[in-house]
Every structure is written in C-alpha cells, then in structure tokens.
Design a protein that fits this description.
The structure is a homodimer. Chain A is built from eleven helices and twelve strands. By secondary structure, chain A is α+β, with helices and mostly antiparallel strands.
Chain lengths: 350, 350
C-alpha cells in the first residue's frame, strides 16, 4: 500500500480537516466505532500535519491489518475507574489507548487541579501512535505532563543478550509563557526499528552502541540486528545502562503499575497481521499553579531563553510547530498517490 | 584533609552507628543544629556503608567548608506547606534538602496513600548527597518513588556551547516482592565531574561524547573540560539530545516547579569555600496498592527475573545492597587515617 510520505511524483496539499475526515472514514469502514475512528483519525492526521511522518498516514496499513486480524477491538468502550482522589484508571477493553485516554481526559485535568497532581493508569490497551500527542494537550491546559508507554520486546537490557524491553518512550510537556508548550518525546532505545530497516536497505553500517546480533553480541550490521538480534537502550557505548534503567522504569510504570502487559508478555502469533503492542500507559500530570514563586510558565520561558543563549539552536518540539504552522496555512503535503489511495480506502470499492 | 576511602595503609572496620555518631558530632560542631546533624550523618554514613564512596565521608570537607563560608544555614528549620491534597511544599530556609525532606516525609507518605499519588516540592535547599537515599525509604514503605534534583551549571544543552544544566540526577525506587527495593540513581550528564578529574590526573583521554572545551567544541581531553569547558548530557555522540531533554526536565521540575533556583542562577562568589548547589528537589510518589491486577511488588519481581533470564547479570542497586550487608556484618571499611581524622574533627582540639 503506497502510503509513504516520500513517494516520488506530485504532491498535494490537503487541508487538515479533509485528511482527518478521510482517515475517520477509513477507520470506521475497517472495523472501529465512530468514536474510536474520530480519535485515531485526529491523532494520525495531527502527526502527518506536524511532519511526524513515521506516525502519520504511514501507519494506516498497520492499523488496518491489525484490525483485520482481530487482535484489537475497534469497538471497545473504555471503562474509567475513579480509584482515589489523584488516581484514575481505565480498562481500555483491548481497544486503543487513545480513546481510553480521551474518555478520562476531563476527569484527569479536574483531579490534577484539585489535588495538585494526578495520574491516569491505562491498561489492556494498544498504543500504535506517537506519544507527544498524549502530553501536549495537558500543557495547553496549563498542566505539566509526563507520559510513559511500553511496547513490544525489541531491546536488550543493559548487559543482557535477549530482547525484553520495548522502545518504551517517555514524553514530557510543560506550558511556556507566550509560546506553544515545550514538548519532548524520546524512545529509550538507541534507535528506532524503522531506522534500522532503512540502514539495512541502504547497506549502511550503524554506529557503535545501537544493537546486538542474534547471539547478543554488539554489531554494527543492521541486517544482523533485524535477523534475530535486538536494539540496545540509548546512552551510547558507555552509558547504555542508563537508558536501560529508564526503559525498566517505563515497564514498571506503564505495565506493572497500570495492570497492563510487559513488552515481552503478549503473544499475537494467533493473529497474523497484528502490529499493535498490547500493554499499558501511565500519564502523570501536575498543576503548576500550585508552585511557589514566579509563574511556572514564565520560568519555563526563562529556561528556554537561557538554553538559546547557551547555543542550543533548536528547542524540543520546535520543528513540529513550524511544520504545523505551514500545514495549517498551505495544507498538509502528501504524495498525490498516497492521497488517492487514502480516498479509495475511505470511499472507494472495497 | 585525608578523608579518602582509598588512602593506602591500614583499614579499620567501623560499626555503622559509630560512624554515624561521629559524623553527627562533626556536623554539629561545625555549624549545624542537632536535628540537621543527625539527618546528614545518617545520609553520609549510609553512603559510605553501601560503598557509594563519592557521597560518603569523602564529602565531609566539602560540607564543612560550605558551612564555614556562610553559604548554607546549618540551623535552618524547614517550613512544610500543605498546598493541596496531593501536593506538599517545603521551604528549606537555605538549609540542606535532607532535613527538609525528613520534615515532610510522613505527610508525603500519608498523602500518597490517601490520594494514590503525591508530590513533595522542596525549594531554597542545598543537595550535596546521593539521590537514591531519597527514594529507597519510600519503596521500603511500599510506595513507588521518583526524585529529581538539579545542581550547578556544568553541562551544555545538546547543540549548545556553554554550561547551563547541572549533572541533574534522576532516582527511582520500586518495591520488589521478597527483596530489597529496585533502585536506580543516574546523572543525566555523560560523566561525573570527579571522574573527569581522575582522568586528568592519570593523563587518560575520555571517549567521544563526554565533554566540550572552553569554546564549546567536542574534546577527549579531560584537562580541556576542566579548563573552562563543560560536560555533555548522557546519550552518547548520537543521542545526547535525549540526555539533554531529560536534564531540561529536571531543571523544570526540580527548580521551576518547586520555586528553587535553576542550576545556572545562583552566585556563590561571595562565599569562598561554598560547594553545595542552592536549588530545589521534586519527589513524586505513587501508591501501587491502587494498581489493577496482580501485586505490583510481585510484578516488579517478575520483571527482575525476566531481566536476569535475558542475561542482565546485575540489577540496579544490587552492588549497594551487597556492600551494605558486608558493612553491617563486619563494619564499614575505612582507612585508619581517615577514621582518625574524622574522630579528631568530632572530638579533638579545634
């Protein structure tokens, strides 16, 4: 399915609402409820809008093959549980994490404002998207947010030889006076699986500290990583134990604490075509209006100014905001073949 | 002052309570209240007991010169503020962070149990110790804990040329069924300042990705780092932007949120001898009894077993526990000259 952003040929500029609407029709037509379709379509169109192509329309085939496999329930209705004054849980019912999050969002914000801090523990959920869309809205609402999600076993623990952890990203967002929120979203693996595949295709070797072969030995050969090997945690040759510790923390908070699966626990072999990890997600959010001293958002802006003065030319999240502004002004650039294929998936003959 | 752990000569094995008592007398004699002395002595003796020498008695001269300089108030009485059901703040009153934490500890635990999650924001505080002692007790009490503290400008942000962040550690602890808690404590810098000094003394070059010279250019020469240069965030040559993002998060949570100073903001030039960073600290703690599904501590143990099966031979914190057991059985090994000097500082002629 030619849903690449980088396909050659004509480029079309698609308004955000058109892309979102088309994606929603695709999801609903391929096995989700209208509610789930709306949430996933917004998420996926937002990634494409912001130039986060690896989580944009590129993911649609994976979503559809997963839905077709019966691995995930596109009609799941999340069940929100009010566990304690600062603690919400959601059983996603073997559905996607994003609708589960959506169902609890307002309650989470209210709890954070009332208690100063609140957390949302999502379990029995599938997360196949970028993580920054889960924290940015909280910062838009004036809150500080930290999100962690585990995924599927493809990373060896530091010193180990067998894949156990997922790429296990950590995302963070903070309100910034006079600007879009400060947001980062980083995998705790040294490299993304997609980048290993690209290197293999191009015949490039990888730098040290990125992966191991099927025997657990360090390798620079991307094909050896793909052929039964695994990724290393980030940190470089000398500090991958740090990335490994953070990845372990993600497993504990996103899976053990929520009641979800560890990245190595689920077995999708009975569902050929399944691609979505069935795990959990934790979101912690803090109300900085409770801070002592000057406005948190102003302090955040002070720090950004200081980082710029120290020579950091690009702040976390900045590239996304720039692409977002362009997309909202001119439309989202998509290869014409990709846009045609999306429209066919949405409205054409099955 | 010969307070090295590695001084040559005879080694004496000192019972924990003897070392703690001696350190308490040293602190009180050199400018702290009895309450502050007891907390700092316990902290410092615990680090020495666990083989964490860089935060053990090695730090005593730094504590004393800082107290003598008037930079920190050894008699400060922390003021605990009950900000919201899940939010405690402490104004440490320009004193040390550990007594401030101690003053709020029981209330923090109670809030976490009542609300599911709680945080403690310490400001106007000096942290000169390891960070793991701040999270381990919470895990001993059955809670999950995350602590962040910023320090003093010695790390360049990713892509930058001037030191801005501190070594900004992150510590995490989780209860583990049938075992001591799982604990890690990692600096977000590529290397500790002390290790750069050791490399310079030994004439060794550092690996790539550890530091920059006074012009902000990458260097392998530890002397160039010490001579007006700075450390890099951890992550290695290809991912130091990730360590940088985490270090930025520590600045925002430990300083901006608490109302403390950023690592680059305080000026101790009027206090020669001062060594303790005057910043803030954030502790987030979660009650895993609120978890869905199986016992969190059992799930934690399951993960540790899986990490061992994947070939990870040493779990985070394990080395400390092993040394702790030895120290409690045989006494804490100290060079006889160091122990004599500590006794002199405590009880000898001034």
């Amino acid at each position: 399915m030619p849903l690449s952003h980088t396909a050659s040929g004509d480029v079309q500029h698609v308004p955000f609402d058109d892309l979102r609407g088309t994606l929603a029709r695709i999801f609903e037509r391929h096995g989700t409820s209208a509610e789930v379709a709306a949430v996933l379509a917004h998420n996926c169109a937002s990634a494409e809008r912001d130039g986060a192509h690896s989580h944009g329309v590129f993911r649609i085939p994976g979503y559809l093959s997963t839905l077709a496999s019966g691995w995930v329930d596109g009609h799941a209705v999340p069940r929100v549980e009010d566990v304690a004054p600062g603690y919400l849980a959601v059983d996603a019912g073997n559905g996607f994490a994003q609708p589960a999050y959506r169902a609890a969002y307002s309650a989470l914000v209210a709890k954070a404002r009332a208690n100063g801090v609140a957390l949302l523990a999502i379990r029995n959920s599938h997360h196949f998207a970028a993580l920054w869309p889960d924290v940015e809205p909280l910062a838009d609402d004036g809150l500080v947010a930290l999100a962690l999600v585990n995924s599927m076993a493809c990373v060896v623990p530091s010193g180990g030889t067998t894949a156990l952890f997922g790429t296990n990203p950590i995302a963070f967002a903070a309100p910034r006076a006079g600007h879009e929120p400060l947001v980062f979203d980083l995998a705790t693996s040294a490299i993304a699986h997609g980048d290993v595949q690209i290197a293999a295709r191009e015949g490039r070797l990888l730098p040290d500290g990125h992966g191991v072969d099927r025997h657990g030995q360090p390798t620079n050969d991307p094909r050896a990583i793909l052929d039964g090997g695994a990724l290393l945690p980030f940190g470089g040759v000398h500090s991958s134990y740090k990335g490994s510790a953070l990845s372990m923390m993600v497993e504990l908070l996103a899976a053990a604490l929520t009641g979800g699966n560890f990245s190595f626990e689920f077995d999708w072999s009975a569902h050929p075509g399944a691609q979505t990890p069935w795990t959990g997600e934790l979101i912690i959010t803090i109300d900085p209006a409770k801070s002592a001293g000057r406005s948190f958002a102003q302090r955040c802006e002070d720090l950004v100014q200081a980082m710029a003065a120290a020579g950091q030319t690009r702040q976390p999240g900045e590239r996304r905001y720039r692409q977002r502004a362009r997309s909202l002004k001119d439309g989202i650039p998509l290869p014409a073949t990709t846009w045609a294929e999306l429209q066919r998936l949405a409205d054409g003959p099955i």
